[in-house]
């Protein structure tokens, strides 16, 4: 058995859980804006990234201008940009409809990834892909009913933001794996740290502009602990779990698995996101939603088994060279 394969699977599932936490952010920060939360979250993550860089041995040889600029660009696409679009989608389209649209990510990513890498014959992917599609339909079937639309502020704003989040995440996943493949000597921890620092730098650079546009509430509500303590606690907690943990786990998955399989695993983000939405609404899932989650899990498990059989077949390897 290939230990690296199962490490990659576990890392991808953890990354999916970590990223799904974005859906509940707007509902736990009180009067502060998502921009305030993003500032705290990415600055704390950037500080963690700096600590990792300073604690790694022989790190300076990896801190080239090209590597730093690439990491900042990836941070802009996949973390700062994705976070703002997905939380904006949750604000305007509600915590159930937003993850429904994000369900497009694994489908698009799987098709593009397998087209580029040729990891498996398409006929092998049809059944797990069909299960994922059916599961997504069942899980999100209530999102567009009258009950599901009760929390919607503006579909005209929320849906484009959700689609933008889909595009950013697909773009990031492909670009990040290509960047890692081009840097086989780069430790995953160092590359993750560079992206984290890039996200922190971007948010600090954006703060003066955002404050002038009244996007931040910190200057109005106050920076002191008595006013913003809840924001600091949630921001630091999500920084460690969702951002640091998510970046680290996804980079491990990107190195261990082909894009097509990672895409199938990231579908669990939708299930996690919908569960978070149900918790926000304080209700139990309907039988259809439960069936959808079960079918989704079945699709993911089948994908892992198919790719696992391919991985452990004599003379076969999943990570086809591009």
Give the topology, please.
Blueprint: H1 3-20, H2 34-55, H3 65-102, H4 104-117, H5 122-139, H6 155-181, H7 188-212, H8 218-221, H9 225-256, H10 259-266, H11 268-281, H12 287-312
Note down, in words, how this protein is organized:
- This is Transmembrane protein.
- The chain crosses the membrane at residues 7-29, 35-54, 66-84, 90-113, 125-143, 155-176, 188-211, 231-250, 257-282, 288-307.
- The protein is mainly α.
- It has one domain (3-312).
- It has 12 helices and no strands.
- Helix 2 crosses helix 3 (65-102), helix 3 (65-102) crosses helix 6 and helix 4 packs parallel to helix 6.
- The protein is globular.
- 51% of the residues are buried.
- Mean pLDDT is 79; it is low at 314-322.
Fraction of residues in helices? over 70%
Q: How many helices does DSSP assign?
A: 12
The H-and-E topology, N to C, reads as HHHHHHHHHHHH
Number of domain modules: 1
The overall average pLDDT, rounded, is 79
Contiguous low-pLDDT stretches (5 residues minimum) are 314-322
Sheet/helix structural class:
mainly alpha
Distance between the termini: 25 Å
Total strands: the figure is 0
């Amino acid at each position: 058995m290939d230990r690296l394969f199962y490490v990659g699977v576990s890392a991808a599932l953890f990354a999916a859980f970590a990223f799904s936490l974005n859906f509940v952010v707007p509902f736990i920060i009180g009067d502060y804006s998502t921009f305030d939360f993003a500032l705290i979250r990415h600055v704390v993550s950037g500080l963690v990234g700096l600590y990792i860089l300073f604690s790694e041995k022989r790190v300076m040889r990896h801190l080239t201008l090209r590597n730093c600029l690439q990491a900042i660009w990836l941070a802009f696409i996949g973390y700062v940009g994705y976070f703002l679009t997905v939380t904006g989608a949750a604000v305007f389209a509600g915590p159930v409809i937003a993850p429904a649209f994000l369900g497009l990510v694994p489908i698009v990513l799987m098709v593009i990834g397998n087209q580029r890498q040729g990891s498996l014959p398409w006929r092998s992917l049809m059944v797990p892909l069909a299960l994922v599609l059916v599961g997504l339909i069942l899980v999100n079937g209530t999102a567009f009913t009258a009950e599901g639309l009760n929390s919607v502020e503006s579909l005209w704003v929320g849906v484009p933001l959700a689609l933008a989040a889909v595009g950013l995440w697909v773009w990031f996943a492909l670009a990040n794996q290509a960047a890692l493949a081009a840097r086989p000597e780069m430790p995953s921890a160092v590359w993750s740290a560079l992206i984290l620092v890039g996200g922190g730098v971007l948010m600090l650079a954006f703060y003066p502009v955002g404050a002038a546009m009244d996007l931040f509430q910190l200057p109005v509500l106050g920076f002191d602990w008595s006013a913003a303590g809840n924001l600091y606690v949630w921001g630091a907690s999500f920084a460690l779990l969702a951002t640091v943990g998510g970046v680290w786990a996804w980079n491990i998955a990107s190195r261990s698995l082909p894009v097509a399989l990672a895409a199938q695993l990231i579908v669990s983000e939708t299930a996690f996101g919908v569960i978070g939405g149900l918790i926000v609404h304080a209700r139990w899932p309907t039988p259809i939603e439960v069936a959808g989650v079960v079918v989704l899990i079945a699709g993911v498990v089948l994908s892992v088994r198919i790719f696992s059989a391919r991985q452990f077949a004599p003379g076969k390897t999943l990570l086809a060279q591009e």
